[in-house]
């Protein structure tokens, strides 16, 4: 799935080369690409062992409520990548959340364990 529009724009503004692709798991994945492929061949790519699932506080609450949260954690764990990460955003001032903030913090703590 593609990350929210703001992150690619921030990376591009800082000169970070990026390519948007649909992922089966996670929002961000780092890929090493061969610099000098043999003539007539496309550059080979190797996915690095880090995948990031980015969640706003509201999305975390909704995914906990509807069961996607457990399923996403399971898929991240089963991805074969050694370093699955959740990037959890603090709620904005006055942001309406689908679950109480202590419940969201408990979900985040459970993910760390």
UniProtKB/TrEMBL annotation:
Location(s) in or outside the cell: Nucleus
EC number: 3.1.22.-
A molecular function (GO) term: DNA binding
Listed cofactors: Mg(2+)
Alphabetized SUPFAM superfamilies for the sequence: Restriction endonuclease-like (SSF52980)
Enzyme class: hydrolase
Any single Pfam family the record assigns to this protein: ERCC4
Entry similarity comment: Belongs to the XPF family.
Name of this protein: Crossover junction endonuclease MUS81
